[in-house]
Amino acid sequence: MRKTFTAFVAGAALLAAAGVSAQEIRIGIAQEPSSIDPHYHNLGPNNGFLSHVYERLVQQDSKQRLKPGLAVSWKPISETVWEFKLRKGVKWHDGSPFTADDVVFTATRAVNVPNSPSSFGTYLKGKTFKKVDDYTVHVSTKDPYPLMATEMSTILIISKKAAEGAQTKDFNLGKAAIGTGPYKFVKWQKGDIVEFVRNDDYWGGKPKWSKIVLKPISSAPTRVAAMLAGDVDMIDGVPTADIETLKKNSKVKLSQGISNRVIYLHMDQQRDKSPFVTDKNGNPMDKNPLKDVRVRKAISMMINRPAIVERVMEGVAIPAGQLVSETFFGHTPNLKSEKYDPAAAKKLLKEAGWGDGFGLTIHGPNNRYINDSKICEAIAQMLTRGGIPTKVVTMPKNVYFKRASRGGPDKSPEFSFILVGWGSGTGEASSPLKSLLTTYDKSKGHGASNRGRHSNPKMDALVVKALATVDDEKRRTLLQQATEVGIGEDQGIIPLHYQVNTWATRPGLRYDARTDERTLAMDIQVVK
Amino acid sequence: MSVFIIRRLLQSVVVIWVMSLLVFGGVYLIGDPIDMLINPEADQEDIDAAIRALGLDKPIHEQYWFFLINALKGDLGSSFIFNEPALQLILARMPATMELAFASLFISIFFGIPLGMWAGLHPESIAGRSIMTGSILGFSLPSFWVGIMFIMFFAVILGVLPSGGRAETTEFLGMQVSFLSWDGLSHILLPAVNLALFKLSLVIRLSRAGTQEVIHQDYIKFARAKGVSEKRVILVHVLKNILIPVVTILGLEFGSVIAFAVVTETVFAWPGMGKLIIESIDQLDRPVIVAYLMIIVFMFIVINLVVDILYSVLDPRVRLQDVKA
Amino acid sequence: MTATISETLVDPTGKPADLSPFQRFVSDFCESKVAVAGAIGVLIVALIAVFAPWISPTNPYDLATVDIMDSRLAPGKQMMSGVTAVVGTDGMGRDMLSSMFYGLRISLTVGAMSGFIALMVGVCVGLTAAYFGGRVDTLIMRVVDLQLSFPAILIALVLLATLGKGVDKIIIALIVVQWAYFARTVRGTALVERRKEYIEAAACLALSHRRIVFKHLLPNCLPPLIVVGTVQIANAISLEATLSFLGIGLPVTEPSLGLLISNGFEYMLSGKYWISIYPGIVLLFTIVSINLVGDRLRDVLNPRLER
């Protein structure tokens, strides 16, 4: 196999020498994958970049809508069984045909990768895969399972022949890295380079680029400089600070699109004595105002979201009123982003008995989301002016997340008022509702990231019902209702904005911005 | 001499052990690796499974004991992130960093010592004063700031040098190196200068201070009186006598360049060890951090050993048993 | 310290003998015009740092008055409060001039405090190691090895995770990082000095260890120490900037000069030059001034230098 790769590299080099180098594309990326094994680590860059090499039964388009991939169709054939019809005539990179055996093999292998730090078992547990014939697979579950197709859009399918018994290491070296995708894996030097070449036999037609070179450049200004200097053809993660000048630069074209990530605030709604809620002079209090829905609403009204978008995010974000934006399944048209109204907020605070205000500390990460630490500062400015003097403490994510999730006594969340983000990998509203707003319950797997410990049985019931409703329209209504209760009525969390991601390309190219933040060569268009 | 070296190496075993203990404890205090590794969509059951898979479910002292047993067998553990032996990961990154470290050491010595001596011999001349004042600039600004300025100027505005990264490597003495081609050198130049600036100024200043002192000592006067040529006086007698502080500092600095060229490697997207350690710390990839710092502390001990031996070579008054610590 | 050193000072320049040691020191110092310029620079910087709250147009740490609607204003534009931002505003709407005045205050405190304490610790430890030798030396030097190979970022992260954020924590982190440098440097020089005749002579006179170490050994180890010392204060400020750059520095709402510089890093390619360039220039001015003074001090205080 390695020989073939070398031959490909040599071929690509010859082409380049012949002046066809325009077909090669070099991309400066912010974060490199942690493995070439598609099931080792459920991590954004892996799921993204490995999509060049492997494919899924169900694909997500650039707006995360489901479309046929290695499966041409899927439907429930009974309450608990889904049928997937596979695509015929698909060949693996080593020439062998793709069949149902590969799918069944993938399903068993993906949940059993040794030392996996984040397993795909999340999407596969409770599902039994059965081969019916070479091109039909049945997946059965114990209970009705509406999210079947959605979850199958997360699993990359690997070749049974090439990967049986293979270790993660064998993928990284290329031996087992055999997919059906438009590009073949060539090499990965950690921290330096990832290389793919064209798969000329791709079932979906000949791919555009002869070769893809990914260069990890983690420092944002350096990435932009590499783009300006012409060292790369494209970069992802363009920092907001540079967007204004890059727009005016003729050497660069920007492509932007809303992402599936919402930035929001959690408030401690469990403890009466919350450690970072104080009176105005900074002394601890016995009463926690954040438990009062009116106070939460008032805080939400004090936040000038358009100002954050315009000033902190430099126009590159969209004010949010719920967990997913318009194009996503489960978005409710009845919830808009809260209007900035400091006068009404003051009135509401008074009504709640906190007219004199109280003190708060906002905690946030400083290297996780776009401008995270600046957003915390802006919010502190706004709340301080609204009569809630607010301190800001930001820290790197490696310190932050442990403390935010379970830094307090009995592994409870330590902080009182925090900034976090959530990206809906599955592209619909049930996953954030379940994780962020249902009552924390370890045994049911509910509220895993509910760091404010919001709890409302009415909303829990709606979410549970939605997760068992196969009918799409009924499920959509249930999710919308759950959102309206959890965020609209309860103010369980305060949504701030949806992130917008920016890519830069050289002139003549355009990127179809993806909501899932992935950078895929397949979505680069050549324009005149 | 050999007893001295053996004793020092034995001590290093203790130091390395203490280091592993400190790092283990340190990482435990900072945070929990699982928060960095797990996908947010995972529920509690998945999180617990991952914690078990990485051996993080055991109490910290058991984890450490387990690590120690394996370490004695030569296994420093596998990276949580890459699932590859930590040692291999580090060694794979070493040639890139070594290249950069030697390039910057070369720059600081071959420019620093002559410039510093010149300034020391001619302290009142305009050139001498300019060298001294100029050398202040070398450590006045943080290197990330200077680094991005370099990139701006040489890569974006002038377009004469690449903006970052390392060139294609070739095999040389069994290592993957990039400095054998023009392209490789052009990639090294900016990060090496960026890295060398601080050391360069330090060397200039130490050499000047040393020269100014030594030049008035009796033995230099005797040498001159004896008719030894000025060239020989400077190159042999002065040079040899200013080297002790220079060697000490360069030893320290060389170690820290290899170990923690974190900022330069990040800003210039240089795929070396510094970038590896900072990314490992970011992700709390404990096996890599522990293995890395154990290697680094050993390296520092060796460097300091070499420096101590150099003392006795450079200055006969320092006997090895004095420094046999 | 001046008194200690002037004891061993010989005066080869033939200056009037009736000058007090201090007057002689001042007159020596002023011989260099560059050094005088540096001293004036240090004075300006120090005055700004001390009087920052009184001379700044706004209070950049007061969240009730800082407004993101003022962010990224170009130099000379007026802020909502009516104050003119002479050198512009930063990304959070803070007046750059006020921020730099306040930031200088914090950075100088952090740099000088951590540098001074680390120097004290390092000198004591280094001299002890060199003078006593043997096991004491072994133990100390291995701890130094350990310390030198322990990255600053890890120390800062542990402090952040256990003690929280703040100026005091950063100072502690910087002391922990720096003392070993001084210890190692002092020991290197002291090893040479302790073999020299004057130390043996002092030992023969049965002077106490403490007297020999501090009155005789230390002054003769000073020249390289002053070099490393003045450089190290600059380095401490740089290090604090670097820690801020890595996200583990001081609180973001009370930016130090280092934090301003690391914020400026983000804006380097944005065309908003005032956010990235001015803090750099202020830091450059500060460090250059301190070091011009430091250079001259070393020349003047050096017991063995004939001028």
Share of β-strand residues of chain A: 15-25%
State the total count of DSSP E strands of chain A.
Answer: 22
Major protein interface: B-C, 69 and 64 residues
> Any idea of the CATH topology of the domain at 259-499 in chain A?
Dipeptide-binding Protein, domain 3
Sequence stretches where pLDDT stays below 50 over 5 or more residues of chain C: 1-14
**Mean pLDDT value of chain C:** 85
Succession of helices and strands of chain C:
HHHHHHHHHHH
Multimerization state: heterotrimer
Radius of gyration of chain C: 23 Å
Indicate the percent of residues in helices of chain A.
25-40%
Shape of chain A: globular
Overall description:
The complex is a heterotrimer of chains A (528), B (325) and C (307). Chain A is of the alpha+beta class. Chain A has helices at 2-20, 44-49, 100-110, 121-124, 148-152, 160-163, 168-172, 220-228, 240-248, 293-302, 305-312, 342-351, 372-385, 397-406, 430-437, 457-466, 472-489, and strands spanning 24-29, 55-56, 58-60, 66-68, 71-76, 81-86, 128-133, 136-140, 156-157, 183-189, 193-198, 211-216, 234-235, 253-267, 277-278, 317-319, 359-365, 390-395, 417-423, 493-505, 509-511, 524-526. Residues 1-21 of chain A have low confidence and may be disordered. With 325 residues, chain B is mostly helical. Chain B folds into two domains: 1-81 and 288-325, no CATH class; 92-282, MetI-like fold (Orthogonal Bundle). Helices cover 73% and strands 2% of the residues of chain B. Chain B contains 13 helices and two strands. In chain B, helix 5 (86-121) packs antiparallel against helix 6, helix 8 (182-214) crosses helix 10 and helix 10 packs antiparallel against helix 13 (286-314). The relative contact order of chain B is 0.14. The model of chain B has no long low-confidence stretch (mean pLDDT 88). In chain C, helix 3 packs across helix 4 (96-132). The longest helix of chain C has 37 residues, at 96-132. The radius of gyration of chain C is 23 Å and the shape is globular. The chains are: A alpha+beta (528), B mainly alpha (325), C mainly alpha (307). Chains B and C meet through helix 1, helix 6, helix 7, helix 8 and helix 10 of B and helix 5, helix 6, helix 7, helix 9 and helix 10 of C.
